[in-house]
Amino acid sequence: MTLTPESRILVTGGAGFIGSALVWELNRRGCENIIVSDRLCTDEKWKNLVPLRFHDYVDGGDLEKHIRTSPDSLGHFDVILHLGACSATTEKDADYLMRNNYELTKILCQWALSHGTRFVYASSAATYGDGECGMDDQMADLHCLRPLNMYGYSKHLFDLHAKRTGMLNQVAGMKYFNVYGPNEDHKADMRSVVHKAYGQILNTGKVQLFKSHRPDYKDGEQMRDFLYVKDAIQMTLHLAENTGANGLFNLGSGQAHTWVQLVQAIFAALGKEPNIEFVEMPEHLKSKYQYYTCADIAKLRSSGYTQELYTLNEAVRDYVQGYLIGDKRLGDEA
């Protein structure tokens, strides 16, 4: 399946970080017959929608009501890109996470399959926990995974449900690793270190990073798989169009970099010398902190994804110089 200007597409979480980036890329491909659904609440993610082109907006609560009571009123979609979720790894309201991240995904997925609609949804690398069981998107036994927070567990629970019911053989679930890039500024504490560090550098001339509390990692040498949002959305749309690519997919760069390397790239993009200060990690994070993540993207590649990815330095430079400087969003480039 190829997405065309005639394709009717639903993007949940469409005002959010990755969701709005997907709408931006769909616009670049000539697609505007898009229904955006989200809960705008009190933050300013609505600003992500301003440069974008789409057919209509539906409140997330109204979307859920329609699906539960009058699903045919929504009409037919060729693809549902389900990015809508509470993405705060520090959220403690378990009931809210279960309703928003688990229950809604269940009914939306069931509705999509019953209407012959391609369903692609956001899982998360947070489902892997500390990585003790590996970070393999082809593992046979998902039950061995131990997420470190309720957000990760809410995502993991739907993965388990989809596999148990056989739905995972008909849909694609994306385990996003550490995605960063334009349109994330509304995410408050959940913004990437790139966005936070940029502000710190402007205000103080330096960047603060957490000290390590494990002897096998030096301060700032904790490692993450950092994925630029422009790569993340290309991968996502590849899975949306490739209806034979089903199951769970790691979406990452396939390389792990240290926080120090990331911060050095930010200083370089600003033409400044690195100035890093190491600070104590808050107590409540110590038991839930991931020291190493790296996505094995062999399954994604074997599905036919051949695009080259941004290097860390290229991505950070594009983000800092193209968007953070000037406070631009995706769609403001022209």
From TrEMBL:
UniProt xrefs under CDD domains: ADP_GME_SDR_e (cd05248)
Gene Ontology MF annotations: ADP-glyceromanno-heptose 6-epimerase activity; NADP binding
Pathway note: Nucleotide-sugar biosynthesis; ADP-L-glycero-beta-D-manno-heptose biosynthesis; ADP-L-glycero-beta-D-manno-heptose from D-glycero-beta-D-manno-heptose 7-phosphate: step 4/4
Catalysed reaction, written as an equation: ADP-D-glycero-beta-D-manno-heptose = ADP-L-glycero-beta-D-manno-heptose
Species in which this protein is naturally found: Prosthecobacter debontii
GO biological process annotation, one example: ADP-L-glycero-beta-D-manno-heptose biosynthetic process
Residues the entry annotates as binding NADP(+): F17, I18, D38, R39, K45, L83, G84, A85, C86, S87, N100, K155, V179, K187
NCBIfam families: heptose_epim
Cofactor: NADP(+)
Record-given protein name: ADP-L-glycero-D-manno-heptose-6-epimerase
Family: Belongs to the NAD(P)-dependent epimerase/dehydratase family. HldD subfamily.
Physiological role: Catalyzes the interconversion between ADP-D-glycero-beta-D-manno-heptose and ADP-L-glycero-beta-D-manno-heptose via an epimerization at carbon 6 of the heptose.
